[in-house]
Amino acid sequence: MNMRNVTFALALAWPGAAFAAELNDYPTSTRAEYVFGCMKANGETRQSIEQCSCSIDVVASLVPYQRYITAETALSMAQVRGNLSAQFRTSEQAMSAVNEVRRAQAEAEVRCF
Predict the structure, then answer these.
(1) CA 104, CA 73: separation in Å to the nearest integer?
(2) pLDDT in tens, 36-46
(3) Cα–Cα distance, 50 to 36 (Å, whole number)
């Protein structure tokens, strides 16, 4: 069975599956990093796995992956000292992406925790 047939079979089994697959552009490694970080902040329990997994799903549904990466990069670079990091702290695009992710995380907090 080729990939097109698998996608069609999924769409028949669950109509939202094909649409969800198109929207799910966050790589597994990015989702895992988010969940691990979230669990460190919220306790390493079975409940936190569920809540943190829910949280990244909400964030991924609200913020396109490229915007998420922009925000993650800006936050990471803002911790570095010097002129290079100042560009990330003051960049309108970077700060806009960071604010978008923070709003999505606030929504995830309401929905998941």
Answers:
(1) 17
(2) 999 999 999 99
(3) 12
The string of pLDDT tens digits covering residues 66-111 is 999 999 999 988 888 877 777 766 789 989 999 999 999 999 999 9
The first and second tokens of residue 7, run together, are: 């996608």
Tokens standing for residue 33 = 């990093």
DSSP per-residue string spanning the chain? --HHHHHHHHHHH-THHHHHHHH--S-HHHHHHHHHHHHHHH-SSHHHHHHHHHHHHHHHHHS-HHHHHHHHHHHHHHTS-SHHHHHHHH-HHHHHHHHHHHHHHHHHHHHH-
Residue reference for tokens 């988010």 = 34
Residues ≥6 apart with Cβ < 8 Å to 23: 60, 61
* pLDDT at res. 80: 83
The structure's pTM equals 0.76
Encoded amino acid at 90, one letter? T
